[in-house]
Every structure is written in C-alpha cells, then in structure tokens.
Amino acid sequence: MTGGGPLGIVAGGGALPARLAAAARAAGRSVFVVALAGEGAEVDADATVGLGQVGRLFSLLRTAGCHEVAIAGYVSRPDLGDLKLDWTGIRLLPRLAPKLRGGDDALMRAIVGAFEDEGFRVVGPEEVAAPLLATECCLTVSSPDGADWADIARADAIVGALAPFDVGQGAVVARGIALAIEAVEGTDAMLARLADLPAHVRGTGKAARAGVLLKAAKHAQERRLDLPAIGPETVRRAAAAGLAGIALRAGDALILDRHDVIAAADAEGLFVVGYTAHDLSRHCGAGA
Amino acid sequence: MTGGGPLGIVAGGGALPARLAAAARAAGRSVFVVALAGEGAEVDADATVGLGQVGRLFSLLRTAGCHEVAIAGYVSRPDLGDLKLDWTGIRLLPRLAPKLRGGDDALMRAIVGAFEDEGFRVVGPEEVAAPLLATECCLTVSSPDGADWADIARADAIVGALAPFDVGQGAVVARGIALAIEAVEGTDAMLARLADLPAHVRGTGKAARAGVLLKAAKHAQERRLDLPAIGPETVRRAAAAGLAGIALRAGDALILDRHDVIAAADAEGLFVVGYTAHDLSRHCGAGA
Predict the structure, then answer these.
(1) Which of A87, B10, B98, B187 has its CA 20 to 30 A from that of A7?
(2) Which residues on chain A are in Cβ contact (under 8 Å) with B40?
(3) Which domains does chain B have, with CATH numbers?
(4) ipTM confidence score
C-alpha cells in the first residue's frame, strides 16, 4: 500500500536518502524529497527546510500529496539556540526538547510521534528498499575464520550489553580484545582512532589483517529512523585500520552501494558478513 | 603481616609504583623495586629487567628477601616476537601467551598465578597503601548536582554492563548522553577525543561544565594488578574536555597525589566524588 501519493523523504546527511529515493523510483514509486538545510544532504531535493521549520516541512509534504514519509540520513544533534523555530516548531519544542538530553532513541520516538500526529505514516528504509538490509550471508571472497567468529561473538555481546542504555551501535574486537566501542562519536571516528593503538594489538594491513567491525541496531532503537549503515567508505576505513572484516547483524543494519561495498572489500581482502544468533552459536558454542 | 622482608614492587609505567613505594616506606616498611625496561617507570629502581626476563625477576626478588610483591603501573601489551625470553619466561610462555588473546583479566590472573607458584604473595595497592583507595565522599568544593548524579548513574550502568566482557573501566556521560566509552585505548585518549565532538553536546569549559568521567574496576578484574587510577593530570584533562567532574566507585579506584588532585579540581571548579550504589539510589531512585 503506497498511501496514494509520492513517498516523502526527509533527507539528512550521508548517502542513504539518495539510495532510498533511487530504490523507491526503481520500484515504480514517485518521491518528494525535502532536504534539511546544513546537514549536507547528498540528494536532489525538491525543497529545503531549516531544522526548526517544522510547520513548513509538514506543509510541503502535505501539499505534495505525501501520506508516507521516510526520514533518512544523519542529523547533527541541534543546538536549541540556533534552531530558528517556526510556529509548529515552537509548539512541538516542549515535547522534543527534553528528549535531547536523553539518548537517541527517546528523541527518535518523539520525532516519529510528531509526524504521526500530523497524519503521516513513517516508514523504515527496509520497507521502501528491502535490498538495502543486511541478510544472513557472506558477500565477499574472504569469509570469517574461527578467530573472526569469536571476535564477532564478543563484539555482538558488547553491543548487546549496551543496548538498554541507548548507546553503541558499533564495536571493534580483535583477537578477543575490545579495541573500540562506539558512543556518540560515530563509526568513522571510531575506526580512525584505531590508528593510535600499538600495531601489535590490531591488524597491520593487508598482510596481517585482524579484528572485526561490528554494527547492529540497538534493541530499543526506533528502527525506522536510525538503522546503522555501512558503505564503500566504511570498508576503506576498516581496511585502513587493519581489520579483517565487517559483520552486520542480519536485518539490523543497512548496506548502501552494495556492489561497491563488495568490490572494495574484495580488493582489500576483507569479509563483509551478515550474521544471526544461530551463526554465533554454531561457530562459537552456546556460551560465546 | 609483612612476610618478613621488604615489599617487592614490580614497576611498570606511570605514577603508581613511586606512590606505593612512598606509602610503604611511610608505614615503616622497606621496599625493593624492580622496574620493567621500556615501560617508562617513574620510580627509583633497585634493578631493571626486560619484560621477558621472568627468571631474573623472580631471582632478584628472592635474593632481596621479598615474600610479598606488588605489581603496579602500566605495562604495554607485549609483542611476543620482541620479548627476549629467558628460560623461566620460555617455560611460562605456553601458560601466558593464550591469555594475550583474551581481555586483560585472564592475563592478570595468569600473571598472579605465576608469582604465587614461585612462592610470592601478590598484594594489591590498597593493602600497601589504603589511603590511595577512593572512599564514599566528595573531595572538592564543587559537588554533583541532580543532573550530574543522573549522569553518574548512567555511566555506572554502562561500565557495569560491560564488566562481564572484561572491557571498559571508564565512560563519559553528559546530560544523559554517552559521549565516550573506554575500550583498550585508555582514559587519557578517551578524554582527548571529546574535543572532536560538537561543543553543544559536551561541556564548554569553565563557564558551562557538563558531564562526568566515571572510573570503576571491572567486576571480574584482578584487583591486585589493575585498579583504575586517577591523578592530577586526569583532572586537568577532564577540565580541558569541559566536564563537570570525576566519579569513582568507592573501593574500586585509586586516587594518586590526592592533595594535588583536590587542588587541581578546585582550581578548575570540578568535583571529584567517591560513590556507592546507595548514593545512586538515593539521588536517582531505584531504577536509575
């Protein structure tokens, strides 16, 4: 069911909004893209609004005939003093502002609620573009060996343990040692800082890769807005950090530009694998 | 009971070994200090051994009449190829090497076991120098307010959730948001990277401090070797990162150079507080 109109896409930064628009069009659906100003949206937009122009955003989507809306891409946590709110924004502020002090998830749920109160249905990227979602398979020539599976199981346990606290969609584990845990800084910053660790605790490039970057949605996560995503650039950064591969919990992460991801990983000898709890128990035993 | 001889101190890097030696001497006990070469020990040593010269280390301690040994200070995770093992080291290697692939705690337990098999009693820093241990009190003029206590409770929950995975002695939480989680990189590196976050998600210096650095021992932690420690430099780095204060789980962390820590914190307006589970439930309610 398409809601009888174009898919509205509210576009933050990064590659996801353009990929969603392309996937929707490929499925025969028209799209209406509203970019959020100042967030570096990489997509051809039909309109642009400031982060505080909430009323204008709703009105643009309604005028375009949108009943379903996908919200996609990075949005920097706003500084309330710079928001330049319109009247609808001012009306919603008491509801959203307290959530800015919590983790991402509370804020995401409040944003989804605000759209739904206006009569829009908020759809997740996997509803619009199922092929983006990581599935249980190894996409690459290289695949995880026993030590890699142990690292995947440990990283999965770490990310899982942090889920109740609305933090951590990513971790890097190499040879059993947690090299990095993602908080608010993002995956790119986490991978970049691996270069500061002593070479022998991490992999050292193509000759001796070690360690896994794992990405998985937080339990509580408002999945429609904030599924973790990787792209070719993630692969290149993981390769530069000396890692052996990337693991994504199946159904819990997005792969953007899949062909480029596979090509980049194969060129560097990395694996990219989607895994389930069943894989972990099969490769690592029940206690892993 | 002093074991009838001087306290042996096996000294890695950082300020802790010298503080332990001073505290033992102040308590009327002689010490015999063996520095580990290449680890940057900041202490007057009676002898220096390489990390692989395990037999020489045991023999030095025995010749000096030591029955009790404290192992203190940072030791970089060794590259096995560079160890230059002596015969005792070669004999112990099959026991220790597999632990290098696990977290710190398995390795620490194996090291303690190796000393005990040689007839030494391994003592923790708090046995030698009880005043170093954080207690339940606020040391500073500034003390945590309600928002700070909420941040402390959240950071404590995050560090606690990671404890079973032998990772994470530290975290930074500001206004409910986990800004950083410590993995293998260490507290200094974790604090340094806060500068890369947008100013409005963190505190912005003396005028608007926000956020708490929390340090607490891992559950499973071999406490005799690896209690987390702060010193005046930690306070200065926390201040530079814009944080409001530092929280240490009482009995689970060391404070080195306590007077300098207090002076540095008061000069910058930071709090330094030792807390218990009771404090968290009193300030934040049972569910915090």
Answers:
(1) A87
(2) none
(3) 7-130 (3.40.50.20), 133-284 (3.40.140.80)
(4) 0.72
